[in-house]
Amino acid sequence: MLSVQNTELQDMTVEQLMIPAEKVAHVQRQNPLEHALLVLVKSGYSAVPVLDASFRFQGIISKTMILDHILGIERFEVEKLSAATVKDVMDQDVPTIRKKDHFTKGLKSVINHPFICVVDENDLFDGILTRRVILKQINRYLHEK
Ligand code: AMP
């Protein structure tokens, strides 16, 4: 991550604040649901990005989406974890942001989402911007002013 120590909030870009792709846990669209649930439980994250084999952003998948999918009338139908794949369950209708976008766009984006995926013009995945990072910057700004 680039240093943001002396940069004014409005001059910061998403690139300076994002967690880069190589540090982000993700799953692929053709993975079985069981694999996605393992990644989510072991990482402790409630949701992670879904990519294709070429590292293109496809959507996100969460623990709640998986649990909803396997919920039967009276029990969790855990056999569905190996029958279904990530693409059957993931949410494709999620906003994205670009590396060169400004802090203020990032701030607006994380009002309704705990994290936003950063993609390039070909939908290649660059990383994520989290609400935590945005709040940390605002907190630092308010206490240094
Ligand atoms: P945080 O603001 O750090 O609590 O992160 C909010 C959400 O962003 C987490 O619940 C995850 O869904 C996602 N997230 C944060 N860091 C990562 C990461 N390194 N890999 C995958 N997802 C992440």
TrEMBL record:
Superkingdom of this protein's organism: Bacteria
Annotated ranges, domain CBS: 18-78
Keywords linked to the UniProt accession: CBS domain
PANTHER family in the record: CBS DOMAIN-CONTAINING PROTEIN CBSX3, MITOCHONDRIAL (PTHR43080), CYCLIC DI-AMP RECEPTOR B (PTHR43080:SF30)
Protein name: CBS domain protein
Record lineage: Bacteria, Bacillati, Bacillota, Bacilli, Bacillales
